[in-house]
Amino acid sequence: MKNVTMISRRSFLKAAMAASAVSALALTGCGGAASSTVAASSNASSAAASAAAEGGQTFKVGIVNYVDHASLNQIVESVESRLDEIGKEKGVTFDYAGYYANAQADQSNLNQIGADLVGDDVDVIVAVATPTAATMLAAVEDTDIPVVYSAVTDPVSAGFDGEEGITGTSDALNTEAIMNLITAINPDIDTIGLLYDLSQDASTQAIADA
Could you tell me the pTM of the whole model? Predict the structure, then answer.
C-alpha cells in the first residue's frame, strides 16, 4: 500500500508542477512551447490529484534557481504564486519556503543542492534553467523524485526529451518570426549582427537557425 501511495504523490506532484511551470512561463512572457509530456502527465494524474486533495496532504517542493537574473527570478516567483493557487484549489499544501536554493551559477553549488534535496526527500524538484535541470536529473537518478524544468531552451539537445521522471516547458526562441519581422521592416537588409553568450549552450540552436 505504501508504494501505491508514493506513486500517487509523485504522479500528482509531476502534474501539478507541470501546470505551475506552464503558468509561470505565461506570466513572465517567456514565449515557449510546453513539452508534450506536460499534458500527458496532467491527464494521467487527475485521479491522483483527487486522492491527494481528499487527504489534505503536504508536499515538499524543492525549487532551484541557476542564478540571480530578472527573468529567472520572476519565474521562481510565478511558480511559487501558482503553487499557492493550486494548493487552495486542490486542498493541499506545497511547502517550498524551506527548500529553495540559488546556485549562483556555480556547478559545485548545484551538485550540493541536488544532494541536499534528495536527502530531504522532497516530493518534486523544480529546476530553473538548463544546467539546473541537468544536474537535478542526475541527482535524482536512483530515486522516484520527479523533476520539472522551466527556462530550458532546447530540451532535446539537453537530453531531456523522452527521459523518465522529467517534464517541463521550453522557452525556445522563434528565430523565423524574428527574421520575418526584420525583413518586413527592412526588405533590403543585407547584414544582420547576432549577439549571444558563448558560455550558453542554449544559444547554439538559435544561432544555427538564424
Answer: 0.73
C-alpha 31/C-alpha 45 separation (Å) is 26
pLDDT given for residue 53 in this prediction: 52
Three-state DSSP class for 149?
strand
Task: Spell out the long-range contacts of 96-99 with Cβ–Cβ below 8 A and sequence spacing 24 or more.
Answer: 96/60, 96/61, 96/62, 96/63, 99/60, 99/61, 99/62, 99/63
Query: pLDDT for 35-46, tens place per residue?
Result: 434 444 444 344
Euclidean distance between CA atoms 13 and 172, whole angstroms: 25
Q: Which residues contact 38 (CB under 8 A, 6 or more apart)?
A: 18, 19, 21, 22, 167, 168, 169
d(CA 174, CA 109): 32
Q: What is the end-to-end Cα distance of the chain in Å, rounded?
A: 53
